[in-house]
Each structure stands twice: as C-alpha cells, then as structure tokens.
Amino acid sequence: MSFKEWVPDASRFWIYILFLIAFQFSNGMYFTAMGQMAGSLSLTMNDVKMMGAAVLIGLTMFFTLAFRLKFRFPNQTCLIIAALGLALCNLIVPYIQSTPALVVICFIAGFLRLFGTFECFSSILPKIAPTHNYAVFLSFVFFVVLGVIHVFDILSTYIIYYYNWHYVHRLAIALMLCVTLGAIVFMRPFRAMPKLLLYGVDWLGMVLWSIFILSLIFVAQYGEQLDWLHSTYIRVALGASTLALAANVWRMNNIRHPFLELAAFKVRNLLQLLVLFLLMDVLLSAQTVLQNTYTSAILHFDHLNSANLEWFEFIGMALGALFSWQAITRLQLPHKLLTFMGMSFIVAYLIMMYFLISPATNIEKLYFPQICCGFGHVTIFISLTVYAQATVPFKNYFQVLTVLGLIRTGIAAPLGDAIYERAMSGFMSKHLALIGSDTNIVFSGIGAETLHATSLLSTLQELFGWSVIFGVAVLIAIAGSRYKDRIRKPIPTLMALYKMALRKA
Fold first, then answer.
1. Residue 187: beta bridge partners?
2. Which of 157, 394, 410, 496 ranks highest by number of CB atoms within 10 Å?
3. How far are the Cα atoms of 142, 236, 285, 288, 411 from residue 279, in angstroms, in the given order?
C-alpha cells in the first residue's frame, strides 16, 4: 500500500525485488577490490579487512533497531534514507586515506545497507510467506543475501579486471540513485500504523557494543602484524574491549532499556547456537585462506578464473536454500539433523580439497567442492536461524540476532583467518626446515622458488587434513548434542509488533 495507486499490483513485488538486489550490490567496501584499494589508498591488507569487518558489524547492529526504525518512518522515507546514505558512503570512500575514518564510514554503510534490505524484506514478507512460515521466508532471505552477494562479487571482479575498483563504487552510486528515484516516482509516504518515536533507544549502548567487538576484531586482525601483546596498540585494544564490555554489563543491570537486555543472553540454547556459528565460520575460513592461497600461488589462477568458481558456490547456495525449504516445511526434518547435514557438506568440501592439493589439478575438479561448500553454508544458516526463531521469545529475538551476528559476522571470520594464517606460517617454517635438511634435495640444484612451492603444497595439504579432523570432531559433537525442537511459532503481524514495541517504549 506504500505504492501510488497507478502502479500495477503485479509489478509492486518485483519493484521491491529490484530494490533488494540493488541494496545487496551496494557496500562501503568490496572484498574483491581489497588488493587494489590497499595499493591506491596506501593501506595494508589488514586495514582493508578491518574495513570489511566494520561493514558486517554495522549490519549486525541494525537488528536490534529494525522495527523501531520501521515504525518511525514511512516505507518511502526508509528507502530514500538508506539509498542516499549508501550513495554518499560509496562516493567518499575512494578519496579518504585515514583508516579510522574509513572504518567508521564502512560501519555506517553496513547499517544503512541492512536498513534498506530489511525494509524491502519486511514489505514483501506476506507475498513470500502468506501463512507466516518462517522457514520459507528465511530460505528466500539467505538465498538472496548470500547468493546475490556472490553474483556481485563476480560482476565486480570483471569490472576491476577490465577497468579499476573506482568503477565498482560508481556502479553502487548509480544503483542507489535509481532506488531513490524509484522510491520517489512509484511510492508515497504511506504509514500503515501510528508513528512510534525513537524515545528510549540506547544509542550509547550500540556504540559501546560496537567498540567491544571491533576492538576484539582489531586484535585478531592485526595480532600477527603487530606481534600480539608486545604491541601497545594490541594492549590498548584489549583494554578498550574490556572497559566497553564492563560498561555494557553495568548498563544491562541499571538502565531501563539497554541496547542488549540481559534476558537476551539467558535464552535457551544461545551458547549452543553461538558455538555452532563460530565453528562453522572457522571451518569456512579454510576456503578464504587455504583455497585462495592454493589457487593463486600454486595453480596461478587469475582473478577471472577465481571469480568463475563462485558461480558454483552460488549454485550450491541455491540448492541449499531449496533443500532447507523442503526439509523444514514439508519433510519436517529436525533442526539438529539439518544442521548435521549442512556441516557434513562443509566437511566433504574439506576432504575433497585435501585430495585435490596438487599442481596438476585443473579448475573443473574444483567445481563440485564449491557446490558442497555453498550448500552446507546456506543450510546451516537457515537451520540455526529458524531454530532460534522457534525457541527464542519474540521480545528478545532481534537482540539475539544481534548477539549471534557479533559471533557470526564479527569475531568468527577474523578469528578463523588469524588461526589459519598463523598455522600456515608455522607449518611453512617446519616444511622448509625439513626440505632443507634433506641432502639429496640440497645437492640436486632445485631453485628456491621450487622449494617454496613444495613447502607450500605440503603445508596446505596438512592444514586441510587437520581441518578435516576438526570438522569430523564437530560432527560428532553435533550428533551427541541434546536439544528438542519446539513448535514453530508464526511471525506476529505488524500491528502486534507495533503494540509490543509501544509497550516496551
């Protein structure tokens, strides 16, 4: 009903879908452009990764405020604010060389990106799931969010390869201006319910939680570069995270409406969900660290060949979303079994990569492992999020999503990357020493480059092997865990959500 009356009913859903895709194409920092950004802006790779982490944390912090902002502004206003804000972030990022300023801008961009995304999803929810079946809705959500991001990564790789990384930001600006124009032309400032003011929002709490998690990410990201606790910066970051956490705990017990309530940390099986997301992201770091090292340093794939692998991961995600939808809604498989199956596909990916580590491996042999990885990734996301919706009281549901996001999109990925990078450094030294101690190799006249490649191959295969062992241990832990599914609760209507938010305020 937020559209103008002359807009055909059949086209309104698809206009929202186009808006949704445009928001997934827009970001403050693009992972495919990390190398070019580091060179152009005189940044290190850790600086650029820190910017990427800030985007994800900004996105996570939006969950707690999702319905408060939706009930405060009309649909048209929400879309315009998010689109123009993202356009401004993309406009200024290429011209700033201050890392702290870029981190703040990327945090804002992540917040605005989910602002626009949530507005689109919440508006088309009745069309996707008329019966308010959350499994159907989440299957669609994660396919769009994770799948479209992979498509954009492929598209941005081609743009960077033939032009430069500035054109990716220009494309994002153009898309956001199209969203703004579409919102002005097709929509009206319609409000389906009375305005709910932003009174009582704990903005300081949001800042403190952001400082806490970003400080921990800083330690995980820069620890190797700055020599861990020998660096003053690392010690200051740990101190800042400790003080921020203490302030947040005090505020949870002493103010009326903290950003994250204490009840959100006491929900049933929250620790189990946090651990599962953490383990999943640590295992998936093998793809981002080990596989990328293998394809670039051993197989010498260029950017286009590496991007083509993402098509098969996208196919796996589509199959995973379709399977999860059928498994939960029609087959009614237990969430524990679905989680076990998703993790099994990730472990299958690790096993296949262990046997494929060789200089003679061609790109076609990597297609099926990518499909398995994408399938397992999406399946676990959908299963655990649907389980959280079925077991967490709705009053704390979006706060629990924020807590899960702090692990899932915050500390887990940098921690996994740090573990694998540290392990690669240690195993490389060990294998170089073993090869150097072999007198037959020393007197055979093999060059230093060949010795390094041989050591790297052995290191990658050994790390994939340890990852398989760790993954099998995770599967055993999932099989031995005990939790029961509750009856799935339907999503409350928007009026019920409004009444709940009004009572809370």
1. 3
2. 410
3. 19, 28, 10, 15, 11
Q: Tokens in use for 151?
A: 């498509």
Q: How many CA atoms lie within 13 A of 176 on its CB side?
A: 30
Both tokens assigned to 301? 């794939």
SS3 of 215-228: the string is HHHHHHHHHHHHCH
Contact 153, 307 (CB under 8 A): yes
* One domain for residues 193 and 207: no
Q: Distance between CA 397 and CA 401 in Å, rounded?
A: 6
Residue type, 203: W
Whether the per-residue pLDDT at 197 is higher than 50: the answer is: yes
Residue with tokens 């042999």: 365
Phi, psi of 187 (to 5 degrees): -115, 165
Alpha helix stretches (DSSP H) within 330-447: 335-356, 367-391, 394-405, 412-436, 439-442
> What is the CATH number for 480?
1.20.1250.20
Q: What is the three-class DSSP state of 3?
A: strand
- Contact criterion met (CB below 8 Å) for 128 and 329: no
* Same domain membership, residue 432 and residue 408: yes
Q: Which of 61-65, 207-211, 218-222 tops mean pLDDT?
A: 207-211
- 475: confidence class by pLDDT, cuts 50, 70, 90: very high
Encode pLDDT of 15-33 as tens digits: 998 998 889 888 777 766 7
Task: Tell whether the model's pLDDT for residue 505 goes beyond 60.
Answer: no
Same domain, 50 and 118: yes
| CA dihedral sign of residues 469, 277, 53, 75 | positive
